[in-house]
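JOB MANIFEST
job_type = single_chain_structure
chain_count = 1
residues = 225
[input]
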Amino acid sequence: MITLDAIGTFALIVGLLTLTPGLDTALILRTAALGHRRRAWGVVLGIQSGTLVWGVLTSLGVTALLTASHLAYETLRWAGAAYLVWMGGRLLWATWRRSSGESPRTAGTGAGAKTRTGTGTGTGTGDTLLGGWRQGFVTNLLNPKMGAFYIAVLPQFIPAGASHLAPGVLLAGVHILLAVIWACVLIAFAHMLRGRLQRPSTRRYLDRVTGTVIAAFGIRLALGQ
């Protein structure tokens, strides 16, 4: 049976990992800052669904095959890199196209700006829970480093001779719980700043920063860094 000390140590490790700014943080903040609260929670649930899948696969030994197979790991790595670069590039392209097509007169009016920015760009349109879940789930599953992290860390906290599935799911649940709590903080913070982020110029800047971060993660993944 897994001990409380093991759970506490694992919680500390994944807690520090959760607090480290990264792709998940960028996705959640950007989506919530646009006022898409349902989609933001969809992104959170999608990411954590992916985390649960990685935890189950690691407990069953599937991710060990992934890390042992160079071809499987490289295939997943390049697929994830291509997806992230496409998602970030699409977001950047949408902001540049919107900026070049915006006339000085409509730039200062709420109606014209809302028409161009109110529906969301790049990483998906519409404030839908399912759309956000799909985005978060695919992003998490196409990140082979999640699998590598779990295969390196999770077995160290599972008692020898015990069934791996139940303790593995329990530890993944601890990770998910901490991540959801942190997501609540991020969404609340973005909601507080939503008034300032409704300006078209500010939203374009936010989208460009987020798109750059997402594309950079994809490039780093492709380079194996």
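[summary]
Residues 103-124 have pLDDT under 50 and may be disordered.
Residues 4-98+119-223 form one domain.
exit_status = 0
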